[in-house]
Amino acid sequence: MAGLVLNNVAKLYPNGGVGVKDLSLEIKDGEFAVLVGPAGSGKSTLLRMIGGLEDISLGDIYIGGERVNDLEPRERKVAMIFRNYMLYPQMTVYENLAFGLKLAGCGKNELHERVMETAKLLELEELLETPSEQVTGIDRYKVVVGRALARRPEVLLMDDPMISLDGQLRCEMREGLAELHHRLGVTVVYVTEDASEAMLLGTKLAVIRDGLLEQTGTPEEICGRPQNRFVAEYFSRPAMNVTTAKVEEEDGRAILWVEGCRGVFSEENSRRLLKGEYAGKEILIGIRPKDIHAEPVCGEKWSDNRVEAVAETCEEYGGETYMTFRAGDETFRALAPEETKIQPGDPVVLAVDPEKVYIFDKDTQKAI
């Protein structure tokens, strides 16, 4: 297996369009890297550039330390699985696994050895003589992955291969793919628009928007320390609450005002705001719905960060109940207490843990 390095890579089109903008990224040997972002952000274009299916306009790509800009796809030691993957229904599982090797001119003995080795790794040995049209679920996906792995690629490229699957099968595939990566240790570059899928699968995430690399890091780093408002909102389900707050200094500490209500920042955020001379200015604050609590859950905690509100709507999301509350002109979505009896129109008190408040510059949208 091998690592992957992209140095100032760009994709420029004759009409003046830009698909990828001066992007640099390092993926270490054995990492499961996920390129994640909205549709049209350049993720698949970048993946195709790595695989040799798109020309590189500027910059360099290295696989295993070798510059591959001028190499044909078959010379790059990569295998690619597309979103519309399929098996050849007239072939057995064995024949599907062997198909790419035959095209590459692999000798009969070596071909058999690779197929059997791949089947053993993926626990497909008992299905080798089964017609592929009879293979379903996770086993079908294993055959697709196995067909790529049989070529012994140094990097496995996957272009949103689960996009067309239903919820249950997609969940099974995610678990199966994560387990396979853990067992095989192959370097993977995976494309998806799904932030939750990226968090579940990736050991390293690269967040891309409009061809630009917004942030890289582990799932914990991306979710816990977003570098800008876009990343924070993209990795918040349900949507993050974002509102404008006025910053003031009081007894050497930053405080905030939202809709006439006074609140406090964490010590770390207070230090950053005062150091950045934000006192007297407006900023953006972001709070995930799960971090806003309605009484009685909040109890006596966070007494400095409370606001009176009125309940409006209720919805289920991911097995939890969230409610929408209105405070003045602002609307907030918050996690409802278990077995809540709050009804639309009821007055409530909302409380926020100051450690869970994200702060952004109002003009640049960057994290402070």
From TrEMBL:
- ABC transporter domain mapped to chain residues: 4-235
The terms describing its cellular component in GO are: ATP-binding cassette (ABC) transporter complex, substrate-binding subunit-containing
Question: Keyword Metal-binding, does the record have it?
Answer: no
PROSITE patterns, A to Z: ABC_TRANSPORTER_2
Q: Does the keyword Transport apply?
A: yes
Q: A Pfam family name for this chain?
A: OB_MalK
* UniProt-listed SUPFAM superfamilies: MOP-like (SSF50331), P-loop containing nucleoside triphosphate hydrolases (SSF52540)
The record's keywords, sorted A to Z, are:
ATP-binding, Nucleotide-binding, Transport
Q: Which GO terms describe its molecular function?
A: ABC-type transporter activity; ATP binding; ATP hydrolysis activity
Cited SMART domains: AAA
Please report the name of this protein according to its UniProt entry. Answer: ABC transporter ATP-binding protein
Source organism (scientific name) = Candidatus Lachnoclostridium stercorigallinarum
